[in-house]
Write a structure and sequence with these properties.
Blueprint lengths: L2 H17 L12 E7 L4 E9 L5 E9 L2 H14 L4 H16 L10 H7 L9 H19 L3 E2 L4
Parallel strand pairs: 1-4
Antiparallel strand pairs: 1-2, 2-3
Helix pairs in contact: 1-2, 2-5, 3-5
Length: 155
Amino acid sequence: MSGGDLRDLYQEVILDHGKRPRNFRAIANATRQARGHNPLCGDQLTVYLALDDSGRVADVSFQGRGCAISMASASMMTELLKGKTEAEARHIFAVFHAKMTGQPPPDGPADQDAVDQLEVLSGVREFPMRVKCATLAWHAFTAALDGGDATARTE
């Protein structure tokens, strides 16, 4: 597959998740939730999280509004993090964040399948202002784990 074909495929996946986001709903029995807001572009969302007794992500969802990148990233995040432990979820985000910001990945094994699926968002790093869109839901997710709200990060 050529570079152009791959970019087209990635764009298709982003548009699909952006137009038809998965897990776009509130969780009635959410154990935690956090809002994310990017004041630079107006993206706003709330991430709902239900952890099971062992600390695994039993369910995760979101509601809100934003650009296609923000919605696609949130949608993909909810699909990838179900069933993960808190540590696994945080590590996936750390690897994703490093990829988005051009930083070296953190030490430790990563869920390679999850990392591969997030590759469709890799082109966003060429547009630093859009990195905030791609990571907003993830910051909200970690804020939910930590018990607070999230705003767009500037890194």
